[in-house]
Design brief:
428 residues; mainly alpha; 21 helices; 0% strand
């Protein structure tokens, strides 16, 4: 697939004009004749290439706005093809489900079924809204986005097509042990990252009711291990994706998890891992790129901890592991400017995490022992005043003051819950 967005869109439109959707739908919905080896190999190989093409097509369409030509044309073709049969989205999800089950019982090694699982994982991930459906060098390696893209809010889909696909995928793919097995590498190492990508797409783009379903499906247990391994290995994609999934789903984990008793323990282990990153010092003379990435990862950890702090079952772990790291972070970021909305949001997220936890007396004592009072006092007094440029004449200075005043009037006032000084004062 061409790297530029214009060339990729041209390829997508050419494929749609050539009738790619109905052709791929027929290929993916055709049965595999397992009793004839030569025909079975051909059927599986055709499905692999069909899934890869489908992953690229939906990936290109998702890379732009929902009102873009590519996205509109693709879903028009999908709906037109689905008049007399199931949509290609449903067919692909069912193909992944059936293939995953067949791999677990098919003992012969003469069919590339694992490759079909990998390709269908990429296709379903793109169908569920991931914009990373294209392939580098035309082979297996997926082109993945940065952690900033994973934590950004998803664009609304007025038609609800992506939400419906995510809901259907959640109901059919996350109800058994197949997805957790893929995440731990039971289907091969090449299926791990596409599995993470699919779980992330369902989490970010699905309806809100998928979060408690994912939380109780058992996938958070392997994600805890993935998070820790990614931090050690420096794998930012795996770390940020795992953290985002834990952020949105971890709040629904409860102590009485039934037969998945290790679920709560795994989320607590994830809190310990994320909290350890907050304690990493920011060396001023370090590489600028590495320092920027470290700061961004700390921001992701803080927002994840804030979401997890809404679950009272996790307060003990947050109090033990997160409060010292949050104290260190707030101390080093105690100077803030009201005009820097991103920084203020991050500081408020950290403060709200502390605010929820210290409701219990034992946790308040823990916060006091880790020196939380000092950064709170610094935050209350650390608001930076807008600096005036003294260059130029008196008239120029007055004009700049008027402009600054107008900018302040245009800026929407922050609510009490989002005001750094107010929240810090309440926590103190």
């Amino acid at each position: 697939v061409p790297s530029t967005s214009t060339a990729a869109l041209d390829c997508l439109l050419e494929a749609l004009d050539a009738g790619a959707v109905p052709l791929l739908s027929r290929i993916l919905s055709a049965k595999i004749e397992f009793h004839e080896q030569d025909k079975a190999i051909g059927d599986v190989t055709m499905k692999i290439h069909a899934c890869r093409l489908l992953a690229a097509m939906f990936g290109i369409a998702n890379n732009g706005s929902r009102a873009d030509l590519g996205w509109t044309r693709l879903y028009d073709a999908v709906e037109s093809d689905a008049r007399d049969r199931s949509t290609i989205m449903t067919v692909t999800i069912m193909l992944l489900q059936s293939t995953a089950k067949h791999v677990q019982h098919y003992t012969r090694q003469d069919l590339p079924l694992v490759e079909l699982v990998e390709a269908s994982l990429m296709a379903v991930g793109s169908i569920c809204g991931s914009s990373t459906g294209c392939f580098v060098d035309g082979v297996k390696r997926p082109q993945l986005l940065s952690s900033l893209d994973f934590l950004a809010s998803t664009e609304d889909d007025p038609s609800g097509r992506t939400e419906d696909a995510c809901g259907f995928a959640c109901s059919n793919l996350f109800n058994d042990t197949s997805m957790p097995s893929m995440l731990v590498g039971a289907f091969g190492e090449n299926c791990v990252r596409p599995s993470i990508r699919l779980a992330l797409a369902v989490t970010l783009n699905g309806p809100f009711d998928v979060h408690p379903k994912l939380a109780t499906s058992g996938i958070l247990i392997p994600f805890s291990d993935i998070l820790q391994s990614a931090l050690v290995a420096g794998d930012r994609f795996a770390f940020s994706a795992s953290l985002a999934i834990l952020r949105y789903c971890g709040a629904y984990v409860v102590a009485d998890s039934g037969d998945k008793g290790g679920l709560l323990a795994s989320v607590k282990q994830s809190i310990k891992t994320a909290s350890a990153l907050l304690k990493i010092p920011e060396i001023s003379d370090a590489d600028a790129v590495s320092l920027s990435q470290l700061r961004q990862l700390k921001v992701e950890c803080i927002f994840a901890l804030e979401a997890l702090s809404t679950n009272a079952s996790l307060w003990d772990s947050i109090s033990t592991h997160s409060l010292p790291g949050l104290s260190i972070y707030l101390t080093s970021n105690s100077d803030w400017d009201e005009g820097d909305a991103h920084r203020c949001d991050t500081l408020c997220a950290a403060l709200r995490t502390i605010q929820r936890v210290v409701v219990l007396r034992t946790h308040a004592i823990s916060a006091a022992f880790c020196g939380m009072g000092t950064p709170l006092a610094k935050l209350i007094r650390g608001k930076k005043e807008s600096r005036e440029d003294t260059t130029g004449g008196i008239g120029t200075m007055k004009a700049k003051r008027r402009i600054a005043k107008k900018d302040a009037e245009k800026r929407e006032p922050r609510s009490k819950e989002d005001d750094v000084q107010c929240v810090a004062l309440e926590v103190l």
